[in-house]
User: What shape does this take?
Amino acid sequence: MNTLHRLDGRLHLEGVALDTLAERFGTPLYVYSKAALESAYQAYAQAFAKTPHLICYAVKANSSLAILNLFARLGAGFDIVSGGELMRVLAAGGDPGKIVFSGVGKTADEMRAALKAGILCFNVESVSELHRLNRVAGEEGRVAPVSFRVNPDVDPKTHPYISTGLKENKFGVPIGDAPALYRLAAGLPHLKITGIDCHIGSQLTDLSPLADAAKRVLALVDTLSKEGITLHHIDLGGGVGIRYNDETPPDLEAYGQTLAALFAGRHEKLLLEPGRSLVGNAGLLLTRVEYLKPGEDKNFAIVDAAMNDLMRPALYEAYHGIVAVNQKKAAPQRYDIVGPICETGDFIGFARDLAIDEGDLLAILSAGAYGMSMASNYNSRPRAAEILIDRNEIHVIRERETQKGLMAGERLI
Ligand SMILES: *Cc1c(COP(=O)(O)O)cnc(C)c1O
Assistant: This one.
């Protein structure tokens, strides 16, 4: 994140010193850079400029309204996975005609809401879902635009929990079954075939699985077209990785060139569904060191952020860079950075060398994606506030939850 920099030893995001934010708004605190969000989006727009395309931001990576609104103003479409995300995109000013609806478990109510909104298409993931969608569209007196999410069976070489394009995954329909399914869909009265979709996994650091998946999908599209089934768009999903530690993420320009070559002369529009790579490195989580707890084998730094604020370390053993907000001259010591939650899985990072004292601030980096959107209230912890920085301007885009608010919907018997 080049919008993150030090000035006289103090960590700044754009023009704002992070310690002043912690003083004003408390910790834990999510902080995002508008410039970093915009430049991540522009990098996609540039890399794929040669191919007619639509970037559908994967809302689940970070579904805060201000962030959705920012992408909507840049012209983005959206990839949603629930009725709640649909409501958010609409509330944030997103264009319903640029929404694709993914997910294996769409309810009839979610389908109805999306049909009424007039979304671009449903990415259908099973035969049962196809029949339900046809029925619901009929009841609503509408025609549902459909695309099948096919499973190209390529190994994305990523963490098993975020690998989605293998035969054994719950997602999509096997690519070999697709021709029969398209024929079936073509015969259903309340559906209109519009596209095809795949999404093979997340945090991919290698371009070749993405390119392999694209080739398999395009071959299928050509087979379908010989049968007279023509598509308006080909959606190749998200999944481009980011740098958390020492990864080398795929080069977007190279990905853009690969797809430009594959799409040359084709009439279908390219859709992409990036999530992490648009927001991940545009945000960080500020936390304060509550206690230092030296031990025989290890030292712990117990901070006020926890697995409920940032679940990725506990869920995937994910790595996040952790740096002191204010640099100190003292010699660094090695710490496990852990939260206050009563779970051994409540850690943020292991064996980090830091020069810190109790009361100091730490920045947990690359926390813009799957951070706040996965946050929970475990241990009755209110969720953090969110700040969006625009040069020297500070926008509170979400207030910190209150203890009282957490109890609001509860009743005694
Ligand atoms: C999660 C998801 C994405 C976004 O993945 P990233 O790795 O964050 O880019 C895109 N499409 C679908 C269907 C998803 O489930």
In short: Residues 58, 60-61, 79, 102, 199, 202, 237-239, 273-277 surround pyridoxal-5'-phosphate (CB under 6 Å). The radius of gyration is 23 Å. The mean pLDDT is 96.
